[in-house]
Amino acid sequence: MILSSDEARSLIEKMLSFSSADEVRVNLSGGRSGNTRFALNSITTSGDEDTLDISVTAVFGKRHGTATGNELDDASLQRVVKSAEELARFSPEDKEYTPELGPQKYLEINGHKESTAQATPAVRVAAALSAIKPSSRKKLTSAGFFQHNSSFDAVGNNKGLFGYYPSTNSSYSVTVRTNTGAGSGWASDNSRDISDVNYGDVSKRAIDKARKSRKAKTLEPGVYPVILEPQAASDLLGYAVFTMNARRADEGRSFYSKVGGGNKIGEQIMDSNITIASDPTHPELLGSPFWGDGLPSKKMEWIKDGVLQNLFYTRYWAEKQGKEPTGFPSNLIVSGGSGSLKKLIKSTDRAVLITRLWYIRFVDPQTILMTGLTRDGTFWVERGKVRHAVKNFRFNESPIALLNKVTGMTAPVRVGSSLVPAIRASEFNFSSLSDAV
Amino acid sequence: MKELADVALNQAQSGGASYADIRVSRHKNQSVSTREQRVQSVSNQESFGFGVRVLVNGTWGFAASHIVDKETIAEVTDRAVAIAKANQAAQNRPVTLPPVKATQAKWDSPIKKDPFDVPIREKIDLLLNANAEALKVEGARFVNSRMLFLNEQKTFASTDGSYIEQNLYRSWPSLSVTAINPDGGGFESRDLEVYPRGAGYEFVEETDLVGQAQKTAEEAVMKLSAKSVEPGKKTLILAPSHLWLTIHESVGHSTELDRALGYEANYAGTSFLTLDKLGKLKFGSDIVNFRADKTIEGGLATCGYDDDGVQTSDWYLVRDGLFIDYQTIREQVMWPEYRQARKNAGLPEVNESYGCSYGDSWSSIPFQRMPNIHLDAAKEPRSLDDLISGTDDGIYITGRGSYSIDQQRYNFQFGGQTAWEIKHGKITGMLKDVAYQANTQEFWNACDAIGDESTWEMGGSYYDGKGQPGQINAVSHGCPPSRFQGINILNTGRTI
Lengths: 437, 496
What we know:
The structure holds two protein chains of two kinds.
Chain A: H1 5-17, E1 23-39, E2 42-60, E3 63-69, H2 74-90, H3 114-117, H4 121-137, E4 140-157, E5 162-178, E6 184-191, H5 199-212, E7 222-228, H6 230-241, H7 246-250, E8 276-278, E9 300-304, E10 307-308, H8 315-321, E11 332-334, H9 341-346, E12 350-364, E13 369-382, E14 385-389, E15 393-397, H10 399-402, E16 406-409, E17 413-415, E18 418-420, E19 423-433
Parallel strand pairs in A: 7-12, 11-18
Antiparallel strand pairs in A: 1-2, 1-4, 2-3, 4-5, 5-6, 7-19, 8-9, 8-11, 9-10, 12-13, 13-14, 13-15, 15-19, 16-19, 17-18
Chain B: H1 2-14, E1 19-35, E2 38-56, E3 59-65, H2 70-87, E4 104-108, H3 120-135, E5 140-158, E6 163-180, E7 187-191, H4 202-207, H5 209-224, E8 227-228, E9 232-238, H6 240-252, H7 257-261, E10 290-293, E11 314-319, E12 322-323, H8 330-333, H9 336-344, E13 357-358, E14 367-368, E15 372-375, H10 384-389, E16 393-398, E17 403-405, E18 411-414, E19 418-423, E20 426-432, E21 434-439, H11 440-445, E22 447-450, E23 457-466, E24 471-479, E25 482-491
Parallel strand pairs in B: 4-6, 8-20, 9-16
Antiparallel strand pairs in B: 1-2, 1-5, 2-3, 5-6, 6-7, 9-25, 10-11, 10-15, 11-12, 13-14, 16-19, 17-18, 18-21, 19-20, 21-25, 22-25, 23-24
Helix pairs in contact in B: 1-2, 3-5
């Protein structure tokens, strides 16, 4: 269910009127989404969903509790408020409680695209057919997923705060496998505007990769130079950024902790060609203008020329440490270099070229050492050309180590809610081979 | 409720559906989170709605809404029918369903104490007491603890004449302690080895959080000064608190029939257990038997009926080391590749699903999800001590740690909560930086000893992910401690 700004405000005010708590905040989110899945060159499942979430946080003194529901009749709404109040009353005082915010000024961001909001199952079928038809002709098997949604978020409290943000999103991804199971290729695209999702091109790229990834040769595991395509780079880099919690760093339980106390803000932790920022107003990405507690989101620079500029500060920890609260990154923008992947490959003497990474998990949070595997298109590059496919690898590597060995980057491209370049690095640790295709 | 369900079923049939079902469900979830002597959050979440699934000319359509009234149900059902019709242009594998017995039934998780009836203050006090106990240990610096309770009240009705009501509960207390190295950086965490159950609050009471907090904290501190492991091939003994996850990843996901055929190729992946291997592949050594089940008391995937309306049961996936079956839902039983593979393997023809269909919400499309899968205990008496005393150079691993496996379930890497060195039949001390890597088939064929029934324990996960859009599934895995020969051990210690 999508509520307009006026409808959201009216529902929030109704909820507030049901409560006798000292402070009350209401968060609303809802929307309508559609999706279609296909596999074995045939549509498998497809659905449309209407959803709504109504969340109430009630506060008495420094005691707080939260309840959510999704039924709109007055009795159900009152039940949610009562549940939040009861939880708050029976909770002990929270010495870290930070009072609700008053009215805030938010960035002007319009993440809603009418083309996406009006999308029908027909566009999803057309996307599926863009992979199914050529795959069927070429002895290939395609499996993919197209989804689109139109949604809203709203926040309001009894101190006069109110925020409303409508947005849309759409994405398509496809994996094409050879019928023998010897080759597999993957590609994807996403945009807030469904007409920007070039599903035909995505299907073509996946088909091309599947065919080229047949006859993979075995490269012994070890340390190799690599080129991480933007998806693979994004898969791994996220762990370097989303672990930037200031409190954990200050408490000594993070890579970002400084030996002897404090954190690494101001230290050179990556190569000087690495700059990482977030910007909810970036036209290719767009993010919500506020966080769940109503804190405005803003442009942030996390790494500049390899130097750590900031960590994520909650309102409580920021106040305690004399810092500004930052919120979580609304997106990830890695500045990268210039030029295309083709150009980067052309200037490469030897490297393993990786399409994407899979099942990435922490091995050691102290060094952000991650393990995972390559998947759906892994190739050997030599003297400026992609020479042949190679078998997939398991890796044990830290994104921090990777970002200290960067030898080249492309211009950044959109990957989910990030802008990330393809990254070439001089060393990457592949610990074993995988038979998976 | 039956009247509402009939609106969907009649509307679907008049729209041309050969089959339709509706699930109306209420999902409740309560969470209490603490750290040290502070309550971070307490929340009650509730979600109510319905989803209608229709089959029109062999093509599925689905639609769902949080507004549960006759008018919306009719409108949403029309939408599901329209989606099915639109999809026919790209339908090359028409769905057929085997006959199923019309069922009128009610099924409740056999809980003793409804966790939602237990006062919130009692839960908070228990968590804070456990935290206090952990922090008494010198060197234990931080502690997080949590209780999470789920309740799923679900009504299923189908055009096959079934009307099934179920009330499912799940409970999970957890605790984690972090110790900081006072001598120049570094930290280690240790999680309590307690995993969620399909049970009520009685599971929390049986867990003895306060009693276990001290040992958990002591071992977090001990990890700081543990010896870094010498890598190489070694004998591995895996505790049930650890092995359940290895079973989940290497056995549970590889025996999913939808993965074997390619239905999950774009996300979770396919499986090395392709249909030509059914009844032929030596999955493990002769002592390895894996049983799938959705009926065990306390199992997270346990229920009376699945989301196809099929009564649940149990069956073997691997018997005497041989791979002999998959997990199935109703439509999969009719897949010609599966029927032919069974015939080729000399296995009996099946016309009934094993009941593995599940949608994690009223707004989610049901599909094939993992049942509880267990490793059978040895029939002859064998304790953990027997396994250790018979090991010359090995490592004993407990608890869920790091875990990763490839998209066809060949190559995996796991770590644990604790690792202990075994020399000449005895545990000689704690190790750190331990992970092991193996190939699924080689690993299970390297299993040379399994504990007896008295050593069998159940672990499990709330959050097994699969599907697009992503859905979660809760699933339990029981096993005894087991021993594996010649496994590749890695040292994961690094400096940056």
